[in-house]
Design goal:
mainly alpha; three-stranded antiparallel beta sheet; elongated; 365 residues; 10% strand
Length: 365
């Protein structure tokens, strides 16, 4: 085991490698009566990563669920008594500092991912950290609800300030109607909370933490935040995911490449197939096939329809007959086709009329 008294002074990178949370927690349980330690290990999932029910443990030990509950409570009480001793005391100090640096409150997922050493980011490692925090009177636990995941705070006041901040930030984004940076949202929150007389615990760090664990918020690729209800930053169906990928690419893409980018984005666990994406591209009014399986967005100025439709649009918008070379140039901006394909379309006398070396709409349209 590493020298825990020096760990609080080392860098965060070394901390992630050396802080023995799981080892220290399991080691501390060895001082408990064997039955209490066994029940606590099984109830929290410390070894297997899967917590066991009171009924399951009771059936195996031949006692009632209520008796297992009593044994667990006794074990937790004795484990909590060891929090004032090393190594648990030293680990708790580091944990509290981590929470303090994030404004006094942090989401459980962030705590697990950014605080636990990489080799302890397992179900068992997370269970050990959870047991440690539950046993400490210095940490307030806030249960998960529709607005946020499970949280850990330095006090009830920090917890209340952070949870109320969720609705404040949600309102600011709803009013802005577009993603905003954490700094801009922090400024909005400080004004709102000062007006309500609740700003004494508010900090930029707390705002960043709330944006991280708040269910209404989604971080964009440029580290701004929007609302999860906004389809353009949190797409739910194939159409919205396709639009999301293309708008960020800012260039036409082959339908197979679009599918690949959707998979790489990992929006959710829903499967996505090339055929599903292609069907959406074919049927969606927002998308324009520009040739060879490549699609663009209509909002980029691409003309829907065939090559002939594109030529008609070019000639209609012109003040007069247009030179062949310019027609070819303009069509190639819109379609991935050969010059020969454009020339073949220009030869359709029912649609286009040749005037010397220029072209116009047939029938003088």
């Amino acid at each position: 085991m590493a020298d825990l008294k020096t760990i609080i002074h080392i860098t965060q990178e070394r901390l992630k490698r050396e802080l023995p949370v799981h080892e220290a927690v399991v080691g501390s349980l060895e001082g408990l009566p064997s039955r209490e330690a066994d029940v606590l290990v099984r109830r929290t999932g410390l070894r297997t990563g899967k917590p066991e029910t009171l009924a399951k443990i009771g059936d195996e030990l031949g006692v009632t669920r209520e008796r297992i509950r009593q044994i667990e409570k006794q074990g937790r009480g004795k484990f909590a008594a060891q929090m004032e001793k090393s190594p648990l005391q030293d680990i708790l100090k580091v944990t509290l500092e981590f929470i303090r640096e994030r404004g006094g409150v942090v989401g459980e997922e962030t705590l697990d991912e950014e605080f636990l050493p990489s080799n302890q980011q397992t179900d068992g490692g997370r269970a050990a950290l959870s047991l440690l925090l539950e046993a400490s009177p210095a940490v307030v636990e806030v249960k998960e609800d529709k607005q946020h995941g499970r949280l850990h705070a330095l006090s009830n006041a920090h917890a209340a300030a952070a949870t109320s901040l969720v609705s404040v930030l949600e309102g600011a984004l709803a009013e802005a109607k577009s993603p905003r940076s954490p700094q801009a949202l922090s400024a909005d929150a400080k004004v709102a909370e000062a007006a309500a007389g609740n700003g004494h615990l508010l900090s930029d760090e707390m705002v960043a933490s709330v944006l991280d664990f708040g269910q209404p918020f989604v971080r964009t690729e440029d580290n701004a935040y929007g609302l999860a209800t906004w389809r353009d930053i949190n797409p739910k169906n194939i159409r919205d995911k396709t639009l999301y990928v293309m708008k960020r690419a800012k260039t036409p893409l082959h339908f197979e490449k679009i599918t690949e980018k959707i998979k790489q984005a990992k929006f959710d666990a829903k499967p996505v197939t090339v055929q599903a994406v292609h069907n959406e591209l074919i049927n969606g009014d927002e998308f324009v096939l520009i040739g060879r399986g490549i699609y663009a967005l209509k909002e980029w100025g691409y003309v829907p329809g065939t090559v002939a439709d594109v030529i008609r649009k070019i000639l209609t918008d012109a003040d007069g007959p247009v030179e062949r070379s310019r027609v070819i140039e303009e069509v190639l901006k819109q379609r991935h086709v050969s010059e020969n394909t454009i020339l073949i379309n220009l030869q359709e006398k029912s649609k286009f009329k040749r005037v010397g070396e220029k072209f116009t709409i047939a029938g003088g349209e």
